[in-house]
């Protein structure tokens, strides 16, 4: 009797200590901690009376003779706890998640022998509070329960999560899920309807429009169960909006059956005579277009927005996250009380792209960063188990396509895509988790592609065995329909009625489309949510500020709280220099002009956001938008202290990414058009890492999707003899992308020009991205300053700047040198040194859109000029030469001469001596060629 009581006390102590250790390992004694680490991490060996056997890799085990107790029951209890732990860790490896596999896989690391157990132990009582709250059961029943929880139609990966509160919450939800079964408000008939809507939509289009590409969802219809389940739960889960991003597979299905885009319009887009109903631009294929809709549900309404996307699969992820954060700002979902619960980002991925595209990892890394978090994203992976024709063994080095998500400790649910009930449970779980913890979660839906990559692809060429099985397989809709009839959930008549009603609606939509098409009134094809805007104009815009406003902003920028310990260098040089410029009305440098421009916008109600690597201080220590207390590192934001009713100023140091951060800020600019949104590259050439975002969104999105943006890109650019990598922002690449007034590209020479260009972004009736080659040496060059008079009320940005030199006899000028950016200061110094009186220098501040009339007007001041020169620092095959020379040639109908470096493979020399020699040569050429 005494021995039995002792065993029970020891068992209870074990349970208590283990629970304590799970919550915080530091709170238990060292010997207990070592014991639990042993069986949880698999470092201990399993010792049996009849010999010694070693657990295989990955299986945790418990010493048969525990140093903590000699009791036989305690030893058995420890083995059972180890078994539970290993099922939580490894149960997913033998879950029935693949609908194409007839048998679930078997993991030998979960065999009884791995834990020192035998079949004879199956009838022993194995109750432990670590599983189902100590419910009495035998070992055999425990294993059956573990199999149901962790090795059924959902495989759970969550033991990599370090936060014990999160991990234990997930564990409890999983192990009690069969008590809840699945939500009663999701009727079988409704779920069947979601599946059949998806299935019949694809079948209908396939029959009506033979051979048309649609990148169908066939084989992955379970996606609609996931999406609709989440949507229906949103109103009672505080979600008011969903920002959705996805690639092209299943996109038309999502547009129709989730966002409820007009069926007649969708069908019309398949017809041979379809012409996009857009105001301007070139449009895009139907499975790239975005859409917005407010869905009315039983419990409220939810706004849905699907971001337009290019074929560069995962590029839209960052854009969607940026849009979501912008919407959170607009509806007040970024405060402490709401904590980003009202706007939900959902990203839909393919398995091959999720594992293969580096942008996925970059966007995941945004998830908890202060300037970029969106309160958690639900990632839905349509796991086709193939990438175009590439099988998983050739597509990734990891066990799962989702393994990259473990780096942010996101829980991962691998779900059988042909078990609707499990899909519903997984979707509800994902939404509840996201709303509770504000973290990302991944639902990896295993399915297949019934039609191959697209409807013209023959998948059996490269995967004959798999596609042989798929060809014989019933569709999900038909198999689920038969299951519901067989179990009595629906009658055959009810099930057939669901299918017939859907097909009849599709047929009615088709006939309506044909009737409208016959009438010839294309305006009846509604459904576009594109945003037309006013045409580009060179008309000047008053962007100056009143003197009082400038002084108020300047005083705020130069006054620091008395108790704040500003760094001595800033206190003695930076702040006094600004105060002196404000006092004298002269000497406003680049960074001061920038802050004054921001301050004016903030006081006028325009929020300002700047993000990028180290942009709070500025790469060249020029900005100091944030002051840090030199003793406490407390922060002070001068621009957040302008007035009580000012707009919000945000400046964030980003993580070391260009692709994701630029994509995010571009998305932000779409979602919050009233805000001045800026992204800064640490050096201009860093934008190379974000080229996909530049090419496929910033440069072309308005033409393709009618989505205007006023994003500003700041790209430090200039030749200072510092080598190739940090000299050039690749101006030529941006100019090559310019057409149809799609964006603005500038290379400014004065702080005042920068001031006006920033403010101009919010002062016109249209929105265009602005690409600025920002300076490096000009940030502190004595001549590169402006006066207060240059930015006061009545002043504006000038696309072409005249020569500052006053020519007493302009008729003697026979040469005009055109340039942009930093080289201007070298040219005027050379002209001064040589005493040249016959050369005028005009600055093309805005290279695109090119203002030809202003070029003509300023050049006309020199009636005898017959030589026209373009001077640049970049090599001949780079910079603006190839772009600007044909434009100047058309303007003057004359030869345009080139003064600059010769063509080169590298942007710049790595030798400072060679750089100086090249610079001297190009300056001489400008005046003598």
Task: Please describe the structure with a list of short key phrases separated by commas or semicolons.
Rossmann fold, 7-stranded mixed β-sheet, alpha/beta, Helix Hairpins, 24 strands, disordered N terminus, 30 helices, 4 domains, 8-stranded mixed β-sheet, 929 residues
Q: What do you see in this structure?
A:
- It is a single chain.
- The chain is an alpha/beta fold and 929 residues long.
- The protein has four domains: 2-149, TPP helical domain (Helix Hairpins, Orthogonal Bundle), CATH 1.10.287; 188-524, Rossmann fold; 547-790, Rossmann fold (3-Layer(aba) Sandwich), CATH 3.40.50; 800-928, Multifunctional 2-oxoglutarate metabolism enzyme, C-terminal domain (Rossmann fold), CATH 3.40.50.11610.
- The chain has 30 helices and 24 strands.
- Strands 3-9-10-8-7-4-6-5 form an eight-stranded mixed beta sheet, with helices on both faces.
- Strand 17, helix 26 and strand 18 (770-774) form a beta-alpha-beta unit.
- It is globular, with a radius of gyration of 33 Å.
- It starts with a helix and ends with a helix.
- The relative contact order is 0.07.
- Mean pLDDT is 90; it is low at 1-9 and 39-71.
Task: Summarize the entry for a quick read.
The chain has 929 residues and is an alpha/beta fold. It is 39% helix and 13% strand.
